[in-house]
């Protein structure tokens, strides 16, 4: 396919989460910043992608506009994974990971959507002959740091049909309060975003085991301290990580080190669909479950659904439990409680709502 045109946009949609919007990030988080990539080929087919952009949207967009788009326009792309690796090499001087890889991720997703559009097949058919038609999701809550609000939101998620919950609470009392509210049988995990020390993590593992925690996510900094993560395993609490690892290189190093019990690649951060496919092969090789990180409602979420449907190692995906003021795609329309139907139309399988796009577009 010959690439004729690339455009990037930032669509920023406010959301409500029932809390104060403080906790995980350095500043208040109350909007979803969507860095969207639109690629058009010489036959008029269009593919959409999404690059990670929360708090870095303008930098991610600029990286695509200045470093990727001028080189890609006019190219004939016949092998998207090969293009991906070549681009990683061309841009490595600007940082192997972070914003550079976010930018590559968004373009890669758009290229795969375009490829499926050209063949008039849903995206998952490019990866599997026997894809699943539904994928389970868990409710991923924001950090509330409130022993009354967090348990109430857990109960709300259960009322909406979710059966598994992930917190972002960082204290044992807050985690215990949520466990008390929902009972011992509901799978409950927590992501502490690398905020605990090594000593505290080791000291708190017995209490987390007693709380029957489904998994502990990213306990320490740096997240790629694979040897230390390995030392926490086998103590009654499963470990998971990967949303902040980039490319299959870091995942392979983590798997070789036995760092975690499950891995969490993020399609808009890790290098796109091409890297997710490489990571899926590694997960199969090391017999490790995949729990995709995907707190998005744009092309990144839809791409995650298609990838999950083609990968038996994916037990469930993440669903960000907030209420956006607008929906770029009809995500709720394909949700049945905890289950999401895999779109069956060509490419990502849904059409972007251009009214919402125009209403919340800021760049």
Q: Helices and strands, in N-to-C order? A: EEEHHHEHEHEHEHEHEHHEEEEH
CATH class of the largest domain: Alpha Beta
Strand content: 15-25%
CATH architecture of the largest domain: Alpha-Beta Barrel
Tell me about the biggest sheet? 9 strands, mixed
Gap from first CA to last CA: 28 Å
Quaternary status: single chain
CA gyration radius, whole angstroms: 20 Å
Q: Which consecutive residue ranges, at least 5 long each, have pLDDT under 50? A: none
Number of E-type strands: 13
Helix count, per DSSP?
Answer: 11
Structural class by helix and strand composition: alpha/beta
Number of individual domains: 2
Percent of residues in helices comes to 25-40%
Q: Give the mean pLDDT.
A: 97
What's this model, at a glance?
The protein has 363 residues and is an alpha/beta fold.
Describe the structure.
With 363 residues, this protein is of the alpha/beta class. The protein has 2 domains: 3-122, 2-Layer Sandwich (Enolase-like, domain 1), CATH 3.30.390; 125-349, TIM Barrel. It has 11 helices and 13 strands. The strands form 2 sheets. Strands 4, 5, 6, 7, 8, 9, 10, 12 and 13 form a 9-stranded mixed beta sheet that branches. Strand 6, helix 6 (198-210) and strand 7 form a beta-alpha-beta unit. The longest helix is centred in the N-terminal third of the chain and has 21 residues, at 99-119.
């Amino acid at each position: 396919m010959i690439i004729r045109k690339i455009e990037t946009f930032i669509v920023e949609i406010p959301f409500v989460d029932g809390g104060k919007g403080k906790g995980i990030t350095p500043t208040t988080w109350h909007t979803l910043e969507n860095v969207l990539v639109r690629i058009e080929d010489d036959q008029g087919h269009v593919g959409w992608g999404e690059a990670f952009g929360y708090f870095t949207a303008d930098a991610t967009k600029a990286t695509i506009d200045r470093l990727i788009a001028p080189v890609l326009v006019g190219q004939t792309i016949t092998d998207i994974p090969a293009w991906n690796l070549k681009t990683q090499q061309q841009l490595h001087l600007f940082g192997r990971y972070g914003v550079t890889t976010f930018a590559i991720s968004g373009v890669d997703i758009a290229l795969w959507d375009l490829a499926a559009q050209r063949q008039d097949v849903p995206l998952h058919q490019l990866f599997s002959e026997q894809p699943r038609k539904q994928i389970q999701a868990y409710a991923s809550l924001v950090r509330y740091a409130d022993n009354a609000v967090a348990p109430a939101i857990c109960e709300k998620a259960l009322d909406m049909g979710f059966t598994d919950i992930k917190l972002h609470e960082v204290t044992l009392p807050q985690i215990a309060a949520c466990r008390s509210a929902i009972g011992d049988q509901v799978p409950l995990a927590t992501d502490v975003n690398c905020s605990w020390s090594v000593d505290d993590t080791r000291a708190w593992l017995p209490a987390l085991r007693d709380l029957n925690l489904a998994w502990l996510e990213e306990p320490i900094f740096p997240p790629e301290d694979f040897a230390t993560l390995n030392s926490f395993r086998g103590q009654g609490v499963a470990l998971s990580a990967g949303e902040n690892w980039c490319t299959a290189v870091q995942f392979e190093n983590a798997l070789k080190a036995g760092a975690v019990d499950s891995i969490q690649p993020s399609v808009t951060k890790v290098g796109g669909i091409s890297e997710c496919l490489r990571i899926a092969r590694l997960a199969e090789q090391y017999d490790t479950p995949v729990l995709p990180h995907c707190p998005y409602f744009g092309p990144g979420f839809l791409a995650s659904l298609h990838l999950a449907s083609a990968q038996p190692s994916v037990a469930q995906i993440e669903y960000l439990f907030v209420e956006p003021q607008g929906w770029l795609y009809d995500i709720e329309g394909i949700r049945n409680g905890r289950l999401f139907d895999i779109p069956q139309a060509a490419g990502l399988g849904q059409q972007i709502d251009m009214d919402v796009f125009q209403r919340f577009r800021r760049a």
